[in-house]
Specification:
By secondary structure, the chain is an alpha+beta fold. The chain has helices at 17-32, 64-81, 104-109, 166-174; strands at 35-43, 49-56, 89-93, 114-123, 126-137, 140-144, 149-153, 157-162. It folds into 2 domains: 17-93, GMP Synthetase, Chain A, domain 3; 104-173, Roll (SH3 type barrels), CATH 2.30.30.180.
Length: 187
């Protein structure tokens, strides 16, 4: 799994207008702390839940301490800017192994792994696809399904997520171990 830095790789699936505002408030601070926002999501009614899913920029595994640091920072920023007019619950988590795919670069980074993709509108008569990610080109996600290789426009993707498979677990286990500043194993 290699990082993809080609132009357009940071294109991401759109957030709701309120979550776009939250992203604009918190993203610069989290990036300065060494994290990247993977997904923002708001659920609930009278007391909404704001979910912040983040990952480390260095590729190391997220820890409880990372989530706590993000929570403290996001909480302080949102208290000052107050983009949510009612009381809310803040949840911070890592994306996990079967992570959502939210940026165009994610589809390249996880090429070779299985995913589910749901579109906002039908493509070749269907909205849901399951198969192996092949990669991207010109803002199109290529996926090999049981029937054929399909090209799905990135702008039409509503949601996408990796599927937990033995290959994904093996790749996750084979990822570099988390280390301390001295380079020793932190586990």
């Amino acid at each position: 799994m290699t990082e993809q830095t080609e132009p357009g790789s940071q294109l991401r699936l759109p957030d709701t207008p309120r979550m776009e505002r939250v992203r604009a408030i918190i993203e610069p601070s989290l990036e300065a702390m060494g994290y990247e926002v993977v997904r923002l999501h708001e659920t609930g009614g009278q007391r909404p839940v704001v979910q912040v899913m983040a990952d480390r920029q260095d590729g190391a595994a997220m820890t409880v301490d990372d989530c706590a640091a993000i929570s403290r920072s996001v909480s302080a920023l949102l208290d000052v800017e107050d983009p949510i007019p009612t009381a809310y619950t803040l949840e911070v988590s890592s994306p996990g192994i079967d992570r959502p795919l939210t940026r165009l670069g994610d589809f390249e980074r996880f090429a070779g792994f299985d995913a589910r993709i749901e579109l906002t509108r039908p493509h070749d008569g269907r909205r849901r696809f399951k198969g192996r990610l092949v990669g991207t080109a010109d803002q199109v996600v290529r996926m090999e399904t049981d029937e054929a290789v399909v090209d799905l426009p990135f702008g039409a993707i509503q949601r996408a997520r990796l599927i937990l498979t033995d290959a994904l677990i093996q790749a996750s286990v084979a990822a570099p171990e988390e280390t301390t500043e001295e380079g020793e194993d932190a586990r």
